[in-house]
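Hey,

Quick one before I head out. I ran the complex with IPE overnight. Inputs first:
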Amino acid sequence: MLKRITGLFNRQKVTEDENKLLQSIDRNRLPNHIAIIMDGNGRWAQRRGMPRSLGHRAGVESLRSIVQLCSELGIKVLTCYAFSTENWKRPQEEVSFLMNLLVEYLDKELEELHSNGVKINAIGRLAELPQPAREALDRAFRKTENNSGLLLNLALNYGGRREITDAVVKIARLVKDNRLEINEINESLIKEHLYTAGMPDPDLLVRPSGDFRISNFLLWQLAYTEFWLSDVMWPDFKRIHLLQAILEFQCRERRFGGLIKK
Ligand code: IPE
Ligand code: IPE
Ligand code: MG
């Protein structure tokens, strides 16, 4: 099993700690969908006397290794929060750096992601992204559209409130055009009008960086998600951290408001 797990991507040796964690994880009870708020890049850099941009660059390395791990484990969906609807408030320089980094990441990683069966998708108001970013995303979507491995969902210009607002507008339009009756509006109809239509809700949410909030991420979808928070800054977030999160997830009792038969 380990051979299968280590053989796919081109990367460094599996450490002993990682090996132990890999062996402890129950492969039959993996989360279907993992969501990650990739936070702490700026603080990571500033603590080292470096510009925030170098933190973002280091954060891309964490993203690479976490995507690899999820792909190797057979996780179905990985949603990574990369840029929020509120992040436009940052200095223009930082926003441009992040947009360029997105293009660089997609172009550089596309071949390897594609050859490992990863399907790239994005959620958010993509039409408002700069043109080079939209084009890089389109290239990635087109190339990977028929892949059936990990669905890598990048949350870009994403806001949970914006997503719900957009769903309300779409549904209101259907009612106005007499294509939908008000009594047909229910939870599953709303779910199918979110950007995440067709995807399972996240089972596990990971937020590194020591902040205890969801920062407008997946407000509807996180209703019964298990949270795993850590002080580690995203650029320091390694495979072992995600393995620890999954292991802890497997020890949680999920009740969804009901009771567990003992
Ligand atoms: C997350 O790191 C990346 C984005 C929000 C784009 P931050 O840039 O928020 O880093 P901190 O939270 O300031 O350390
Ligand atoms: C959340 O982090 C957004 C991303 C990681 C893309 P922020 O750094 O923007 O969140 P706040 O401002 O700390 O809530
Ligand atoms: Mg932050």
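Strands lie at 33-37, 77-84, 119-123, 151-158, 204-207, 226-229.

Talk tomorrow,
K.
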